[in-house]
User: Fold this.
Amino acid sequence: MFDEFVIINEGYDYTGIFISTGSPDPTDGDFVELLELGSGSLNWTERKIDLTPYKGNNPIYIAFKYEGNNTHLPFIDNVCVRGTRRGINNSTLMPQISTIAVSGRVGPTFKGELNINGATGPDGPAERITAQVGFGGSGTSPDTSSDWFWYPITYTGVSNSNDVFSGAPVIDTEGTFDVAMRFMVGAAGWVYADLDGSANGYDPVNAGSLKVIPYTTPWSMFLPAIIGSGQYKRPVAKEALDGGHK
Assistant:
């Protein structure tokens, strides 16, 4: 929506409004015409354009194009884009059943919940969602630290008005880590979630925790080889050693 009026000097050449869902540079050729404004009005006039066909594209770019040599003078003011907020309202890392994983083996299941008004829960699953669980250094923030590593998680159901996502990644790196989740709608940017939710921002104090310990080969895997080598002696009852006499 915007206001416009036009001063006509020697005629009219061209004035139009364009939109791009790709490059913001008009020379790249991604802009397409939404509306030719024409010679306009000699008084301020409110104009409205329906952008519903571009719903779900993020970002979009709006441009006004003028062609002429002062033949007409268009004036544009009060440009705004209005709509219903469809972004992430809240997302939460759910408490873990286990805080220990074994390196190279399937770890505990991590769950998180996502809320978007009118899109999750009974209305879901929400579309164009990317969800991941991540692990990073204790006390660090995943939105500013490059040391975090991330694994995809998938939609697994509904909890009240929320979509539920979960995953049990195989983690190869040993150590003690903070745990967080992050969600993204389309290409709108990541929203980071701790145990207290994302609505009030991410706080390392509310991160989950995980200790990844080394994998140890079970003794039973070595036992057949030891027996075969003759190094293993089967225990003999004391009675047998004594000839059966007490």
About this structure: Residues 111 and 166 are 4 Å apart (CA to CA). The chain has two helices and 16 strands.
